[in-house]
Write a structure and sequence with these properties.
two-stranded antiparallel sheet; 56% helix; mainly alpha
């Protein structure tokens, strides 16, 4: 449990104690131990293939990949058994199921407690709505399941099961990652309601067959659709893994080509996620935004290596080639459907609120939300990373610079979200390129000059200019920080405010992309 924060450990311990309290009545007289043993063994047997390496490899990843995939068995137990006995069914399978991350023991205890509490709540809910009678357990002369009335207690059990799981998941997420409860719980219940509803119907089918004249053996026929459902679930995760591999390959290609910013893309993705979580985005959008941050510089693959690594000033033509890297990146990922909004972020992450950015000079709210997030994350990591040509600035200095440029270059809401996230989670700066090995003993660290670029037409010029593609905030004329030359600050548009977006006095001038420059 050393890798788990103290608040999360206390939360897991509390859940385990509550589960143990719910299980105690099962050890008194009157518990149907034969049915408990059969259902517990069945659930454990369903979870075992995911943990078996030989069987898992022979089925090519088509087995369930996580404990708890066979929820219909637990919901059938909630309909067939008393609450304490039903909760006991979940324990062996949860303890024996596969766990991907360490510490595995603590995660198994948490899973067992979580599923026990959810099953206990489901059994209580179905009793409140007359489940034992509706399922044909005696009373009012009913000896067989009463349809459609039996759907009411089954639906109540499923709803309670889903609600308890979502509540516990959100709580442990808030404790482990120090997220606000509203952010941690956002969307958990709604997203899980549909799959758990299907599991509830399968569990009801299993309970009805269990009570039929054919006995418990007939209930095993429900395992086939359950296994098909788990197979589909496994295929979804395999497809997701393929997406991740595709993105990793693109990022590695960028890192190989521009080794002086190695690791920058991953950190921009992480900072983008922190901002998105503070803004309360749904998890699906947060994941897409992480892709946007990781791939924001993928267009550098279309820029000649000699330009990226050039020592000394760039010519106007070379500058124009580098300024095309957002468009190159957009063209590269245009056909990757799962990226969604990330494609617009890749294209527009160098736009500025005052309209002086590139490639299209968008201003204010015309810039997509994802692009405004990535722009802040990109600039923050560029300022706080130690590289072979510059020293990292302290996090506080970088934050102050972002706040100074908020409203003219960056969206103030995104900057504020990053500041709140850093206060909650902190930030570990990283070294890249030659700094990882360090200078030889007695020698000074080598400093590689970064290309110095002339200011383009229509953008404020000064004695020094910043590299294109770094996302750094502009500085006052003649100011230089950490050995990096900076552009002078541009005056914000009339009507710009600290908390709002600047006014847009003109439509964006769309510049045709240059082709064949790389």
């Amino acid at each position: 449990m050393r890798a788990i924060p103290g608040a999360a450990r206390a939360y897991i311990l509390g859940a385990a104690l509550c589960a143990a309290f719910c299980l105690l009545p099962a050890f008194r007289a009157g518990t149907p131990w034969r049915a408990v043993a059969l259902l517990a063994a069945l659930y454990a047997l369903c979870e075992m293939p995911a943990r078996c390496r030989v069987l898992g490899r022979s089925l090519h990843g088509s087995v369930p990949i996580a404990a708890g995939s066979f929820f219909p068995v637990l919901l059938a137990s909630a309909l067939l058994l008393p609450p304490a006995a039903a909760a006991l069914v979940a324990v062996p399978g949860a303890l024996l199921g596969r766990v991907e991350q360490r510490p595995r023991g603590a995660r198994r205890i948490w899973r067992a407690a979580q599923l026990s509490l959810a099953t206990w709540a489901a059994a209580r809910a179905q009793i409140l709505f007359g489940g034992p009678v509706a399922l044909g357990g005696g009373g009012y002369g009913l000896k067989t399941p009463d349809f459609p009335y039996v759907l009411l207690p089954a639906g109540a059990a499923t709803l309670a099961f889903c609600l308890v799981l979502a509540t516990l998941d959100g709580g442990v997420l808030a404790a482990a990652e120090r997220l606000p409860l509203r952010t941690a719980w956002r969307g958990l219940f709604v997203r899980s309601l549909a799959p758990h509803g299907a599991h509830g119907l399968a569990g009801l089918m299993m309970a009805v067959l269990w009570r039929s004249p054919y006995g418990p053996l007939s209930a095993l026929f429900v395992l086939l659709p359950m296994y098909i459902s788990c197979w589909v679930f496994a295929q979804y995760h395999r497809e997701s893994a393929a997406h991740q591999a595709t993105i990793r390959a693109l990022v590695q290609a960028v890192d190989i080509k521009d080794k002086y910013t190695r690791g920058h893309s991953e950190r921009v993705g992480r900072a983008s996620v922190l901002i998105a979580q503070e803004l309360g985005m749904d998890r699906d959008r947060v994941e897409v935004l992480r892709f946007a941050g990781i791939l924001h510089d993928v267009g550098k693959l279309g820029v000649p290596t000699r330009v990226l690594r050039k020592d000394g000033p760039l010519t106007p033509d070379e500058r124009r080639v580098i300024e095309l890297h957002p468009e190159y990146g957009h063209e590269m990922v245009r056909g990757i459907g799962f990226l969604g909004e990330a494609r617009e972020a890749i294209l527009h992450h160098h736009e500025r609120l005052d309209g002086s950015g590139y490639p299209y000079g968008l201003a204010g709210a015309q810039i997509p939300e994802f692009a405004r997030v990535v722009a802040v994350a990109d600039a923050f990591d560029a300022m706080t990373s130690t590289r072979s040509y510059s020293r990292a600035r302290p996090v506080g200095t970088a934050v102050a610079e972002l706040e100074r440029c908020a409203g003219s270059q960056f969206d103030p809401d995104m900057v504020d979200a990053l500041v709140r996230a850093l206060a909650r989670h902190g930030w570990q700066t990283a070294v890249t390129a030659d700094e990882k090995n360090g200078p030889p003993p007695g020698a000074e660290a080598p400093v590689r000059p970064r290309p110095v670029l002339p200011a383009p037409v229509g953008r404020p010029a000064g004695p020094e200019a910043a590299p294109v593609g770094e996302g750094l905030p502009v500085q006052a004329p003649g100011r230089q920080v950490s050995g990096r030359a900076q552009l002078p600050a541009a005056s914000p548009e009339p009507g710009a405010t600290r908390r709002g977006l600047p006014a847009v006095p003109r439509p964006p001038a769309r510049r045709a992309p240059r082709r064949g420059r790389a």
